[in-house]
Amino acid sequence: MKSFSFFVLLALVLSALPVNGGELRYLDYRVNPPQGKPFRLRFSLDSDDLARQSHMLGTQQERDAYYQQLLRDSLREDTGTTGREIFHRSRDTLLEIKSRARAQLPQIVINIKIKESANSWRLGYAIPTQSFAPEDHAIALRYFDDIRYTYAEYERQTNIYESRVRGLRADPAFRAELYRRFDQHFYTRTDPAARITHIDYGRVAQTTAPSLAGLAQAMRRFHDPTQRTLIARVLSFMQSLNYDTLGSRGDSESFIGGFFPPALLLDQGRGDCDIKTTAMAALLTRLLPGRRMAIVLLPGHALLGVVMAPEPGDEILTYGGKTYVLMEPVGPAYTRIGEVDSDSLGYLRGGRIEYIYTF
Question: 235 and 263 share a domain?
Answer without folding.
Answer: yes
